[in-house]
Fold this sequence. Notes:
alpha+beta; 2 domains; five-stranded mixed beta sheet
Amino acid sequence: xxxxxxxxxxxxxxxxxxxxxxxxxxxxxxxxxxxxxxxxxxxxxxxxxxxxxxxxxxxxxxxxxxxxxxxxxxxxxxxxxxxxxxxxxxxxxxxxxxxxxxxxxxxxxxxxxxxxxxxxxxxxxxxxxxxxxxxxxxxxxxxxxxxxxxxxxxxxxxxxxxxxxxxxxxxxxxxxxxxxxxxxxxxxxxxxxxxxxxxxxxxxxxxxxxxxxxxxxxxxxxxxxxxxxxxxxxxxxxxxxxxxxxxxxxxxxxxxxxxxxxxxxxxxxxxxxxxxxxxxxxxxxx
Length: 286
């Protein structure tokens, strides 16, 4: 099992931090026709330029407020849109890279999801809208910084192969063996009914085992994580593989190797495989 470090899917759609974040813009902030594209809020009180590292090579800079700094670039008011998936992928990757650079420079950064644009309000430039919001949300922002300080987010997806699991059940379950023996001794017409009974019994046992495995895996993973968010499972591209677990894990920076070792053990279990991704900014925990 190899830990993946490709851009996380959630970056493109996550709207992290408060849902009450205002719509921003700087000199964009002081221009009513421009907004501010918000990457994140850093645990630093500094006014600086990071260079043209932003989406579409926009100049990224910080707007400090009372010990915190918003990481932004001047932006049109319309969101970034494209029918070209590769273009969107580049935008999302760049968004991620800006956050990575900001974390290296400033330390803890509250990440915001892709395409968060702060807009000016009536006669109030976006920079002032941003500063007002940061003042209103100051305590909440500080709490979030403390929550994620020294930690990273990792994605854990666990899959199983139903056909392999079904074979294990048939080989191990006394109830299933009994139904099979009864079916083998019946006439073809009656055997068909037993076949249906067998399929129902296997399905029931499969569901029971998956619940048990979920609980077991969750407890094993929890030992190495500060917090866990259980996400919805997704369909896979592989026909004979199903996702049993989809987790976002907040992990202390010095514990991810222990988590990786635990997941390696799960990955080696018959019928199971693991996808381990990260580290990411803690999108799911702010």
